[in-house]
Amino acid sequence: MNLKRVAALLLSVTVAVTALAGCGNNSNGGTNSAQSTQTEETGDETPEAVAEDAGSEEAQTGTEETVAEGGTLEFWNDKMANIEQSSLDKVFGTIQSASGYTLDMIPYPDTASYQTAMQQTIRDEKAPGLFTWWSGSQLQTLVENGLVEDLTSVWDNAIYDAGVSQGVADAFTFDGKIYAAPWSVLYNVVFYNKTVFDQYGLKEPETFDEFLQVCETLKSNGVTPIALKSDSWAGFIWFQALLAAKDVELYKGICDGSIKYTDPRIVEVMEVWKEMLDKDYFSVPIDWQDVRPSFAKGEVAMMLEPHVEFTGMKKDFDMVEGESIDAFALPAMDGGKRTIFFEAAPLCVSTASAQKEDALKVLEAWYTEDVQNMFHEEFGYTNTSKISVDTPCVQKILDATADADNYQLVLRFYESTPDKLRDFVLDELMRFQLKNATVEDMLNTIQAEADTVFGN
User: Fold this and answer.
1) CA nearest to 206, candidates 301, 338, 305, 323
2) d(Cα 453, Cα 14) in Å, to the nearest integer?
3) Residues 6 or more apart whose Cβ sits within 8 Å of residue 136
4) Residue pair 329/335 in contact by the 8 Å Cβ criterion
């Protein structure tokens, strides 16, 4: 067996044992839950710890393997532990055909063991040539410590031409240079049960007022308009959507601290949300496993989710695109550009890796049409606007992401604000959605914390 796979397995077991030992007699149990197509950035090791501790003698993984030459490249990730081998073989076989390199994929089963493994190797020449990471501040930490390669030339030579948008590039850009490529891009849109919409003569809203009227019509006919998830990390979903519908600069301002949460314009948006909550346009926060069947049955008519949910709803509930399910981007309140929030998992090249040059060559081929079509076919990812899709609903979303005149792509809140503040905000937003906090109370509480984090 590959020694690094043995090391990965032993490491994940060690982390699991340590975590279990730390539980002791704690009666307040907790779980981390997220749907398979979404990414919740949690873990015992922080990116800061990776940057600070990487390279210590105690942290080096002991492998006697020499780096394979003539077409083998190591690829580490924590994204594919549960993907069927047949799908992996198809995707990576296509990459091999396009690039001439065989990928030696080393998957990790959880975030903690993966970050620990990267901590142990990232400054060493034995670091993987390619690895997946997280965007926002977590990627920035690696950039600031010189641990990942500048990929601007790869974007200029291949990735832009493949149809990956500038908005995605911006999410990976620091000081004018691009330090990652997309492993996956998930576009968040408002799904709607088309059967329910057709029943009540409803159409996709063209304006925000029409959207509110759709909600009112559904509610008056006994259908809950919008599903809210109870996942502790999910409180930002409608918060960011409504802020951007008002003015995307408001959203960006609270993320970087240049605009206060107590700004009157933020208060105005939150009052709109409160009114929608008071009118029961939203469900009470419910578990994601209950959201999906409720949506399929038409008990709730809309949900704001990543576009790959088309695949999930078809597979699990036989919903057919364009017939029983469809999606749209939330209209702007002023009639301007609609905002599509996205989450993007970065694909990085280790600066210290002996395989760096090989990794750069593989990335040149990663975004060819054949490879990205296979990613879509097997994983449901639509990372570029030029892939071949056989359904008009997904194509409509892809067309929107490429339509800079009418749509704008923005990185979601989870990756766009400092981690320390983000988790605090999520708790307050959930309190608000449960109607346990007023607009004024919530925003004042968040701003007090933001002042500490941003040093105001």
Assistant:
1) 338
2) 34
3) 171, 411, 414, 415, 416, 417
4) no
Token readout for 14 is 């060690």
**CA 234 – CA 289 distance, rounded (Å):** 14
pLDDT per position as a tens digit, 20-54: 233 333 333 332 333 333 444 333 344 444 554 44
Helix (H, G, I), strand (E, B) or coil at 242: helix
Threshold 0.85, pTM exceeds: no
Residues of the chain predicted below pLDDT 70: 1-70, 81-82
CA 101 to mean position of chain CA atoms: 28
Range list of H helices, 417-456: 419-433, 439-454
Structure-block tokens of residue 35: 């749907």
pLDDT at residue 137, rounded to an integer = 83
Which pLDDT score is estimated for 133?
94
Q: Which residue has the tokens 């925000």?
A: 208
Q: Cβ atoms within 10 A of the Cβ of 119, count?
A: 21
Q: What secondary structure letter does DSSP report for 156? A: I
| Cα dist from 267 to 12, 207, 270, 448, 449, whole Å | 45, 21, 5, 15, 17
Bridge-based pairing state of the strands 181-193 and 173-174 = unpaired
**Strands 181-193, 325-328: parallel, antiparallel or unpaired by DSSP?**
antiparallel
Length of the chain counted residue by residue? 456
Quote the CA–CA distance of 74 and 359 in Å, as a whole number.
9
Decide the pairing of beta strands 300-306 and 224-226: parallel
pLDDT score for 54:
45
pLDDT of residue 165: 83
Query: What does the pLDDT read at residue 172?
Result: 95
Task: Locate 133 and state its tokens.
Answer: 């990471």
Output phi, psi for 425, to 5 deg. Answer: -60, -40
> How many angstroms separate the Cα of 93 from the Cα of each of 82, 86, 143, 209, 408?
18, 10, 31, 49, 34
